């Protein structure tokens, strides 16, 4: 009998392959280790990230789903909620106990109800609607607020870069 | 590639050195003497030894681990850096013992350490991979045996060396290997636990608990060893700086282990005492999938090795007891709806008692059973109750709640207002407690925003969180109510005369009877508060309607005309009871900020507005002129003002002062 975390990850993987949500491809990098995943996210339509295909990695803790995975963009990104090293800062990925930004209600945080699919969907909606209050990338936040044109231009460049991979 | 080059060069150099010595001296012994005397030759030999050690390491790695995973490699390199730095620090302490032998032993120690770390990572990996082959088991077992014998050998050597030759650097080695041995034992236990888990057909529920206790015991041994080592080192040498970091880490992990064990015990206790097992009917009403592990739940069969049981939380969500237990170790909330189940279940237990006793409140009791109910249904105009399995609350639920809580501070005994000024600051101050209350309450409920307060059973627990009733709002409203809407004064306003008892912050110390008694009172208070809030709301609705009438009227009039006798019109309006709120709305044109549902607004406000229509002409004038006067400087006001007007202004000024002062004190 495999561990419960492993079983749940396998179940989620199966669900994602049988019934993939639009714009998302996700699965373990190597089927011998289900705790490291790779996910491809397509930029949401009608936004400045439209058309891009972004590569991300998810690392799951051994006590998943009691604790959230860590997510990182491997493609270069410029976004108010993505750190320079690619780490994603959204409330769904924060354990209910810690609140690094001090602004989230615990209702938005991680709980076992959430899943890989929900995380990726929230990331897509985050790409569509950045939250400029969380300063994961202060420059991007500022630009998003003050110089939307320039932000769109940079995003367009990143989309082109992501496709050339 | 570079490794191969280095190895080849090293072997070539060694061959050259040995060949050169043998050619020169022709005999074995003289050539050995020659090599040891010649520094370049010795350097080459040391390099060769180093290369050999690395080759040995690679061989071991190949035999016991095969290909290293990226994460393992990363981990290894990171730890090696720390180990090397600490070793250099240790060199400074044992300068006297420094020599080739010493270096060799430290290198060996470093290698053995690396293999311990790798073994640790490998056994942890068992949890992550679905495919564990028999080769894996063979490797792990032989590795553990080899490493354990290494550790024991060196500990034994160090022990005898210390006994015969006194304290030396061997003490450090002995201690290091002892620590490594504890690591190894820990790894071994984990391996055994994982293996049992893999072999068994059903999920092994208690594995997590055993893991916790293993960590606890090994953590304790480690901390004990470090403390003993530091004590001995201080006695014979100096403070061992190189041991501080690992010692700190050991203490931290021990502390965490203690904490985990405590939390786990608490979770198990709560699970067993507070939450009932889910029955087959309970499971039939839901989709019977445990949201934590995403697997089917079957109603508890006691025969299934103590496992397989499911627990039902007070919010009616059902989970595997093992899944729930590991979650409760981290959070005391429902994984699905985030209700603070610990508080709630205590209240629910007392409610069950009350239901047995008090049958006349059956209707309310049913609501309580059905989950979040009373607060919402009592108010009549709220979003639907979050259903089974539905992820968190709809957003407007959270919006609604602060409004409700904001009103709660209201129940202060109505203070008789200053007679002439009753009507004026009413609206402006009356809306402010709700909004400030909402602002402060919106953030405070902590882990379960609103959920705990929304259920009838937990009112008591949430009450202590309320901010002190803002006293600037209550008198104004209190004055308004009896004066202007005597017909709307409900009979259930009466309980407000006595202030509600403040329950203690937690219920654990109370007996069920006490809880029961307290809760009965609480329910009445809550109902009365809701009624009171409804009254306030209809007042505000009326005010808004009249405000709208004014604005349309004024826009129709164009330039307003200054009324000749404002004081006299005011007195007439005050006696006519109903339209008085119009005066307030005229003065404080901000009632839209009050949280009013526009739909109910029109219906509830219909009553006051129809009777006010005939007077609207006059009041329009009054309502408009007073803000115009307010903007003027008070001192510039003509002295011919009527005494009533002066008094009114004075009271208004004082109210404003009090308002601003209380605002600064609360914020
Ligand atoms: Zn479960
Ligand atoms: Zn729940």
From TrEMBL, chain A:
Q: Which Pfam families match?
A: UQ_con
Q: InterPro entries attached here?
A: Ub_conjugating_enzyme, UBC, UBQ-conjugating_AS, UBQ-conjugating_enzyme/RWD
In its keyword annotation, does this UniProt entry include Membrane?
no
Q: Which reaction does it catalyse?
A: S-ubiquitinyl-[E1 ubiquitin-activating enzyme]-L-cysteine + [E2 ubiquitin-conjugating enzyme]-L-cysteine = [E1 ubiquitin-activating enzyme]-L-cysteine + S-ubiquitinyl-[E2 ubiquitin-conjugating enzyme]-L-cysteine
A cellular-component GO term for this protein? endoplasmic reticulum
Q: Name one GO biological process term.
A: ERAD pathway
Question: CDD domains of this UniProt entry?
Answer: UBCc_UBE2G2
The active site lies at 89 (glycyl thioester intermediate)
- Name all UBC core domain ranges: 4-164
Might you give the EC number(s) for this enzyme?
Answer: 2.3.2.23
The record's family statement is: Belongs to the ubiquitin-conjugating enzyme family.
**What is the protein's given name?**
Ubiquitin-conjugating enzyme E2 G2
Q: Which organism is it from?
A: Strongylocentrotus purpuratus
TrEMBL record, chain B:
What membrane topology was assigned to this protein in its record? Answer: Multi-pass membrane protein
A single cellular component GO annotation: endoplasmic reticulum membrane
Annotated catalysed reactions: S-ubiquitinyl-[E2 ubiquitin-conjugating enzyme]-L-cysteine + [acceptor protein]-L-lysine = [E2 ubiquitin-conjugating enzyme]-L-cysteine + N(6)-ubiquitinyl-[acceptor protein]-L-lysine
Give the signal peptide as a residue range, or say none if absent: none
Q: In which pathway does it act?
A: Protein modification; protein ubiquitination
Q: Which GO terms describe its biological process?
A: ERAD pathway; proteasome-mediated ubiquitin-dependent protein catabolic process; protein ubiquitination
Q: What class of enzyme is it?
A: transferase
Q: Where in the sequence does UniProt note compositional bias of the Polar residues kind?
A: 596-615
Subcellular compartments: Endoplasmic reticulum membrane
UniProt cross-references to Pfam families, sorted A to Z:
TPR_SYVN1_N, zf-RING_2
Please note every region of biased composition (Low complexity): 421-464, 565-583, 658-667
For region Disordered, the annotated ranges are 353-474, 565-667
Looking at the record's lineage, which domain of life comes first? Eukaryota
Q: Where are the transmembrane segments?
A: 43-60, 102-119, 131-159, 171-189, 209-234
Provide ranges: composition bias, Gly residues: 360-378
Q: What is this protein called?
A: RING-type E3 ubiquitin transferase
């Amino acid at each position: 009998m495999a561990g419960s975390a492993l079983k749940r990850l396998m179940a989620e993987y199966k669900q994602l392959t049988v019934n993939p949500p639009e714009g998302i491809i996700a699965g373990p990098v190597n089927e011998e280790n289900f705790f490291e995943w790779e996910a491809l996210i397509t930029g949401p339509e009608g936004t400045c990230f439209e058309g891009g295909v972004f590569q991300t990695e998810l690392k799951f803790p051994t006590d998943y789903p009691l604790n959230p995975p860590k997510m990182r963009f491997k493609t270069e990104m410029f976004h108010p909620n993505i750190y320079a090293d690619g780490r994603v800062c959204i409330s769904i990925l924060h354990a209910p106990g810690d609140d690094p930004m001090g602004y989230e209600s615990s209702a938005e945080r991680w709980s076992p109800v959430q899943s890989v699919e929900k995380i990726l969907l929230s990331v897509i909606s985050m790409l569509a609607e950045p939250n400029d209050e969380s300063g994961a990338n202060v420059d991007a936040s500022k630009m998003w607020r003050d110089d939307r044109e320039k932000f769109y231009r940079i995003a367009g460049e990143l989309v082109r870069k992501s496709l050339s991979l | 590639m570079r490794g191969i080059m280095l190895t080849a060069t090293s072997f070539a150099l060694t061959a050259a050195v040995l060949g050169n010595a043998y050619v020169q001296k022709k005999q074995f012994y003289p050539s050995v003497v020659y090599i040891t005397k010649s520094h370049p030759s010795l350097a080459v030999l040391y390099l060769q030894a180093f290369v050999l050690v690395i080759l040995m390491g690679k061989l071991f790695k190949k035999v016991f681990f095969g290909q290293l995973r990226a994460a393992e490699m990363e981990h290894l390199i990171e730890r090696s850096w720390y180990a090397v730095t600490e070793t250099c620090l240790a060199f400074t302490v044992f300068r006297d013992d420094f020599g080739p032998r010493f270096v060799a032993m430290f290198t060996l120690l470093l290698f053995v350490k690396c293999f311990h770390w790798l073994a640790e990572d490998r056994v942890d990996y068992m949890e992550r991979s679905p495919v564990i082959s028999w080769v894996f088991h063979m490797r792990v077992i032989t590795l553990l045996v080899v490493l354990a014998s290494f550790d024991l050998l060196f500990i034994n050597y160090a022990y005898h060396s210390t006994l015969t030759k006194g304290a030396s650097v061997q003490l450090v080695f002995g201690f290091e290997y002892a620590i490594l041995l504890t690591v190894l034992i820990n790894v071994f236990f984990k391996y055994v636990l994982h293996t049992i888990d893999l072999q068994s057909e059903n999920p092994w529920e208690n594995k997590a608990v055993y893991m916790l206790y293993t960590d606890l015991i090994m953590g304790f041994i480690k901390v004990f060893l470090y403390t003993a080592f530091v004590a001995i080192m201080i006695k014979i040498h100096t403070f061992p700086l190189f041991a501080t970091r690992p010692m700190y880490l050991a203490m931290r992990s021990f502390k965490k282990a203690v904490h985990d064990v405590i939390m786990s015990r608490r979770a198990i206790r709560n699970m067993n005492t507070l939450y009932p097992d889910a029955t087959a009917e309970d499971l039939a009403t839901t989709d019977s999938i445990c949201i934590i592990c995403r697997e089917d739940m079957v109603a508890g069969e006691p025969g299934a090795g103590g496992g397989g049981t499911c627990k039902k939380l007070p919010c009616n969500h059902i989970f595997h007891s093992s899944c729930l237990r590991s979650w409760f170790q981290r959070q005391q909330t429902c994984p699905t709806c985030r209700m603070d189940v610990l508080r709630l279940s205590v209240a629910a237990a007392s409610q069950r008692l009350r239901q047995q006793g008090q049958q006349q409140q059956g209707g309310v009791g049913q609501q309580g059973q059905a989950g979040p109910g009373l607060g919402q249904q009592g108010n009549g105009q709220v979003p639907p109750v979050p259903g089974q399995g539905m992820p968190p609350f709809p957003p407007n639920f959270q919006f609604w709640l602060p409004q409700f809580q904001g009103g709660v501070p209201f129940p202060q005994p109505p203070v008789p207002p200053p007679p002439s000024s009753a009507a004026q600051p009413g609206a402006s101050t009356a809306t402010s407690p709700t909004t400030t209350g909402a602002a402060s309450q919106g953030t405070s409920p902590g882990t379960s925003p609103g959920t705990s307060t929304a259920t009838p059973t937990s009112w008591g627990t949430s009450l202590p969180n309320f901010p002190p009733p803002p006293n600037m709002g209550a008198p104004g409203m209190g004055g308004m109510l009896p004066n202007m809407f005597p017909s709307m004064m409900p009979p259930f306003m009466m309980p407000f005369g006595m202030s509600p008892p403040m329950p203690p912050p937690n219920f654990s110390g109370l007996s069920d009877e006490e809880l029961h008694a307290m809760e009965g009172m609480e329910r009445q208070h809550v109902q009365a508060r809701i009624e009171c809030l409804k009254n306030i709301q209809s007042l505000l609705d009326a005010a808004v309607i009249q405000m709208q009438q004014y604005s349309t009227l004024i826009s129709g009039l164009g330039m307003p005309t200054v009324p000749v006798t404002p004081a006299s019109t005011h007195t007439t309006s005050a006696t006519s009871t109903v339209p008085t709120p119009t005066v307030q709305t005229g003065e404080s044109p901000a009632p839209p900020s009050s949280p009013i549902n526009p739909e109910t607004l029109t219906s509830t406000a219909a009553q006051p507005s129809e009777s006010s229509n005939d007077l609207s002409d006059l009041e329009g004038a009054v309502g408009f002129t007073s803000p115009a006067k307010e903007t003027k400087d008070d001192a510039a006001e003509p002295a011919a003002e009527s005494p009533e007007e002066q008094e009114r202004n004075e009271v208004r000024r004082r109210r404003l002062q009090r308002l601003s002062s209380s605002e600064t004190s609360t914020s």
